[in-house]
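User: Hello! I'm new to structural biology and keep hearing that structure can be predicted from sequence alone. Could you demonstrate with EAL domain-containing protein? Please show me the input and the output so I can see what each looks like.

Assistant: Of course. The first part below is the input, the amino acid sequence of EAL domain-containing protein. The second part is the output, the predicted structure written as tokens.
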Amino acid sequence: MAPEDGSDCHTLLLRAEPALRHVKNHGKNNIALYHLFFHHQDLECQLAMSFRSALQNGKFYLCYQLKFNLTEHSIASDEALIRWNSPVPDNVSPVVFTPAAEKNGIIFELTKWILEEACRQMKQWNQSGHPIKRVAVNISAPLFLSDSLPEMISKILYDYQLPAHQLELEITETAIIEYFDKELHVIHLLKKVEISILLNDFGTGVSSLIYLKKLSIDTLKIDKSFIDGVHTSFEYKALVKMIIQLAKLFKLSVVAEGVEKKE
């Protein structure tokens, strides 16, 4: 439809094409208008076809976000963040390619690469006397539901001769709540090999307090949405204080995500 979907012939034809494919793939003999959803589907398909070659050709790399210790006024740990030099589009965001990797079953290979690269870097830091003593890696829900995760991590730690306490796994609160019994079993296996567990995005799940006591986790990460308003909003400040007090009660560490202002 013009001008909503384009003001020239070329753009309109480009956007008519995925609408046409959508009709053909859903029984034909119908009418469909272009929707942004078609674009996301096309992008996911392009990304899925590029994943394995990107892994093989070294197109993925890690950035490290430092965690500042307010008690000791030092930096002793960080979080590994994956990035991709992708041609479609340039430097596609992890917010886009991570769900695509989960849908296409490539998240296992991708996470294994992240774990290996983070442990390789941690080993290098150890050898150079670097102050970073622990690295955190985000684990997607599909992988965290797998019994093979503890074995895979144990092998990677062994290959890089890295003590387990130098690796921390981050799992989102919503994923744990959705598959609680299965997640609890995997967490138990990971704790057996002394892996630290961080509960990510804490405060966003409605049932978190019910399950918190049962989880053998080490750290809570306060969601960025609470931190963004903590210096201007009494309500957010009260919520953050409550989470910190709760963590102390359960003898847990606390990480605040997205701290950008001194206040």
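User: So the tokens describe the shape?

Assistant: Right, they're a compact way of writing down the 3D structure. Reading them back into a model, for example: The CA atoms of residues 177 and 207 lie 7 Å apart.
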